[in-house]
Design a protein that fits this description.
Order of helices and strands: HEEEHEH
Structural class: alpha+beta
Oligomer: single chain
CATH topology of one domain: Ribosomal Protein S5, domain 2
Helix content: 25-40%
Distance between the termini: 21 Å
Number of helices: 3
Strand content: 15-25%
Shape: globular
CATH class of one domain: Alpha Beta
Strand order of the largest sheet: 1-2-4-3
CATH architecture of one domain: 2-Layer Sandwich
Radius of gyration: 13 Å
């Protein structure tokens, strides 16, 4: 996934969180904000140090980026995925199912 699809600056992440459009399950929290300035979506992944060591946090971020890259995401939207420490117990398939259900519930996945 190209870096232009990522939100990196903390003030941009704060804008996404402050819109208060959030859905969650025991494993993820998903914040959404409409962004009509860009012709593509952007997203960020946040994993707390409570999750584990750096290599564990990096692994789950890579897995989430792979899950998002496989989806057809609506344009002009920014979203933030916050990973819960309980996610550590999930397999990749279960993580994909939990995250995709949240993306569908929050109307982020394009229906074709």
């Amino acid at each position: 996934m190209k870096k232009r699809f990522r939100v990196k600056k903390s003030e941009q992440i704060e804008k996404i969180v402050h819109t208060r459009k959030m859905v969650k399950n025991p494993y993820f929290r998903l914040y959404k904000r409409e962004n009509h300035d860009l012709p593509h979506f952007r997203f960020a992944v946040s994993v707390s140090k409570k999750y584990g060591k750096a290599h564990e946090r990096n692994k789950v971020k890579r897995q989430i980026r792979a899950i998002v890259a496989a989806q057809t995401i609506r344009k002009s939207i920014d979203f933030l995925i916050v990973v819960s420490p309980q996610t550590k117990s999930l397999s990749f398939a279960a993580m994909q199912e939990a995250l995709c259900s949240l993306l569908a519930r929050h109307n982020i996945i394009e229906v074709s």
